[in-house]
Amino acid sequence: MAFNQLTISGYSTALFATWYFVDELSLLLDCGDGVCAGLLQKSRKVKHVFISHADRDHLAGLLQFSQLNSRPGLKIYYPRDSGSFPALERFTTKFDPQVSGAQWIPIGSGEEVQLRDDIVVRTLENRHVKTVAGQLKSLSFFIENRSLKLRPELVGKTGSEIAQLRKNHGQEAISTEHRSSLLAYSADTPIEMDGRYNDVETLIHEATFLRDDEIDPDNPRRNRHSSLEQVLTMVAESNVKRLILGHFSSRYDDADIDQAIRQGCDQRGITIPVFRLLPGQRVTNVLEQENLNRGRNSG
């Protein structure tokens, strides 16, 4: 599977609601208000819901989503130390007694959830929510493709020789696991320059503010988000192949956002395709939108 095989729908406006649905993987990233109205019957396809943190604009859609879609096999993952989710599960069950079957699962940083044989979701802590030492309340998610490749030292062996090795010593004796990052979702977070997005095929990253000077270092709430300028600087050094920008503040006009993206790409020599979710607008297939960086790339 490659990034051009993914159908990503979404809505993302800072303060109001954020959600992204990956059709081919039956995967929902965050569950902000309006997700069911945005997906309609497609919401029944969701099998895995990953909630990044407990801000209301990222989870307020869970009540209706659970009422419409709770069933055996539906799994809702949330940061392990966020008490809002067990409370919401209890309330949901009491509010809708017929709701049953969905599993609410706490998850830590560095853990993996298998979506299918070749696809896993890996979690990684981010710094959006200030916590005491040891607590975890905010996550980013990495959707990875995994495949098995023949060990280099076995190249040239016959099929029967390789089969015998596997029989005697197991699959690990003949193959190694190869991973590639199909999709990364930053969720709400300050910018990270630790290389976590290196070589990701498609990155969904928040860009709440357009400029660095709008992030007030004396306001810790604001300082736990990213600016467009920071995101583009990071992407220019990360070998990301496609970029989806969302979570813009509704204070900005659509034209101002698009102009800032184009100028930022020009200034940093970014040539990859860049897409965006404008404030207040639901997009049914993000990667079929206008590429704002067209003319600067071959994508």
Number of strands: 13
Strand order of the largest sheet: 7-8-9-10-11-12-13
Percent helix, as a range, is: 10-25%
Unreliable sequence segments: none
The CATH class label is Alpha Beta
CATH superfamily: Ribonuclease Z/Hydroxyacylglutathione hydrolase-like
Write down the overall mean pLDDT: 90
Instruction: Indicate the overall shape.
Output: globular
Termini separation comes to 18 Å
Radius of gyration: 21 Å
Number of helices: 7
Taking the sheet with the most strands, its summary is: 7 strands, mixed
Pattern of helices and strands: EEEHEHHEHEEEEHEEHEHE
What oligomeric state is this? single chain
Number of domains: 1
CATH hierarchy: architecture: 4-Layer Sandwich
- Find the structural class using helix and strand composition: alpha/beta
Itemize the secondary structure elements and their pairings:
Blueprint: E1 8-13, E2 17-22, E3 27-29, H1 35-39, E4 48-50, H2 56-59, H3 62-69, E5 75-79, H4 84-95, E6 103-107, E7 112-116, E8 119-125, E9 139-150, H5 159-169, E10 175-185, E11 202-206, H6 228-235, E12 242-246, H7 254-268, E13 274-276
Parallel strand pairs: 3-4, 4-5, 5-6, 10-11, 11-12, 12-13
Antiparallel strand pairs: 1-2, 2-3, 7-8, 8-9, 9-10
Helix pairs in contact: 6-7
Can you summarize this structure?
By secondary structure, the protein is α/β, with parallel strands linked by helices. It has helices at about 35-40, 55-60, 60-70, 85-95, 160-170, 230-235, 255-270, and strands at about 10-15, 15-20, 25-30, 50, 75-80, 105, 110-115, 120-125, 140-150, 175-185, 200-205, 240-245, 275. The model has no long low-confidence stretch (mean pLDDT about 90).
